[in-house]
Amino acid sequence: MKRTLHTTAVLTLGAALIAGTAACRAEDTAKPDQVGVVEQLPTDTDKTQSKKKAQEFRSWVEKHGSAQQKDAAGRVSRIIGEWNEQTGDAYISTDINGGKTQVENPQSAATAIVEAFADWKDSDEGYASVYDVFGNAMITNYRF
């Protein structure tokens, strides 16, 4: 192939486009499956904020939650996501299935967490998902 100024420019542009897309990693965002379920905990881009949200949630549950919710909320380590008064999505990271003490019924604990979250949140509607210590979904798209 004879290299001309035009060919060189096209090849350079193509290489730049390919290199530019490499910086955008798939694991940076929550990727739902075909029915909208996020099976793996999304990347936490602001650990300070997600830990603060978890602490606020645990404090609220300690004052207002049932005994089961209080026990389960102690497992929450981070809450990733955004919500406002209208809608939102929350991805709740826990130490279920790997914490210091075993959970007798992990699914029941996950259910108590999303129910407490639905009472705590300040949105009219949205979805909450709970993930175990390995980042695997336990409950997805619990509507609040």
Protein topology:
Elements: H1 5-22, H2 47-64, H3 67-73, E1 76-83, E2 88-94, H4 106-120, E3 127-131, E4 137-143
Parallel strand pairs: 2-3
Antiparallel strand pairs: 1-2, 3-4
Helix pairs in contact: 3-4
Provide tags for this entry:
alpha+beta; four-stranded mixed sheet; globular; disordered N terminus; 144 residues
Cα separation of the termini: 61 Å
Can you list the strand order of the major beta sheet? 1-2-3-4
Low-confidence stretches: 1-29
Largest sheet: 4 strands, mixed
Rounded to an integer, what's the Rg over CA atoms? 21 Å
* Structure summary, number of beta strands: 4
The chain-level mean pLDDT equals 80
Which strand-content bin applies to the residues? 15-25%
| N-to-C SSE string, H for helix and E for strand | HHHEEHEE
Number of helices: 4
**Structural class determined from secondary elements:** alpha+beta
Helix content: 40-55%
* C-alpha geometry: globular
Q: What this model shows, in words?
A:
Helix 3 crosses helix 4. The chain has 144 residues and is α+β, with helices and mostly antiparallel strands. The chain has a 4-stranded mixed sheet. It is globular and about 35 Å long. Strand 2 (88-94), helix 4 and strand 3 (127-131) form a beta-alpha-beta unit. The N and C termini lie far apart (61 Å). The protein is built from 4 helices and 4 strands; from the N terminus they run H-H-H-E-E-H-E-E.
What is this entry, summarized?
The chain has helices spanning 5-22, 47-64, 67-73, 106-120, and strands at 76-83, 88-94, 127-131, 137-143.
